[in-house]
Design a protein that fits this description.
The protein is mainly α and about 70 residues long. It is about 40% helix and about 0% strand.
Length: about 70
């Protein structure tokens, strides 16, 4: 997945998939961690070389599939 997704967005997606109201979530930001990386965009080049071509799906679809496999 190459979409940029914040932790807040991911939490809201998870809550929504579980049938909860994402508006119930409360977030607390901590600016104390000076070495935090603001944007993470992992490369999938090596993965594609090892596994071959594969389908990219949306973040929401990925999270939905993970939750379905867990539950």
């Amino acid at each position: 997945n190459v979409e940029l997704t914040s932790m807040k967005q991911a939490a809201r997606i998870i809550y929504s998939i579980l049938g909860r109201d994402p508006g119930e979530l409360k977030f607390q930001t901590s600016k104390d961690y000076v070495h935090d990386v603001k944007v993470r965009v992992p490369s999938v080049d090596k993965l594609q070389r090892l596994l071959g071509p594969f389908e990219f799906v949306s973040t929401e679809t990925s999270i939905r599939r993970c939750i379905q496999n867990i539950l």
